[in-house]
Specification:
Thioredoxin-like_sf, Glutaredoxin, four-stranded mixed beta sheet, 2 domains, 4 strands, alpha+beta
């Protein structure tokens, strides 16, 4: 199924970002057409002032949603984006079990938290840089 609405979706991403890849996979499963802008974290493109205006935390993914009136909504953080896609486009391929199955929905959220909190390594340069500074390392 493909999205037939008046919104457009623009995703700012980095190819090695597992956070971005979550969003890419979900948008593909839901059939949402998306325009991509690739931000090269290795070249510190996320540190550029024009990107910081878009996302002050200087991280990817960033999803910009534009409606037919030209109004833009900017969403950051993969889980927030996934929840938005699920709630705003409920008739497209669901990412969660049906709303009546609270236990299975909770199980999905448990898995999400295992991935995002327990097993995802700190490979984000800005976080690693901050941790090094806290430790007094160069």
């Amino acid at each position: 199924m493909t999205v037939h609405n008046t919104q457009t979706y623009h995703l700012y991403s980095y190819f090695r970002s597992t956070c971005t890849n979550r969003v890419v996979i979900a948008m593909h499963l839901k059939g949402i057409p998306v325009e991509h802008t690739y931000i090269d974290l290795g070249k510190a493109e996320h540190e550029r002032p024009e990107f910081e205006v878009l996302n002050p935390s200087k991280s990817v993914p960033v999803l910009v949603i534009k409606d037919s009136n030209g109004n833009e909504t900017v969403l950051t953080q993969s889980i927030g984006i996934l929840e938005y896609l699920e709630e705003s486009l409920p008739t497209l391929t669901p990412l969660l079990p049906p709303s009546g199955d609270a236990v299975q929905r909770a199980r999905v959220r448990e898995m999400v938290n295992v991935i995002t909190n327990d097993i995802q390594p700190i490979n984000d340069g800005r976080v690693a840089k901050r941790v090094r500074a806290i430790r007094g390392e160069a």
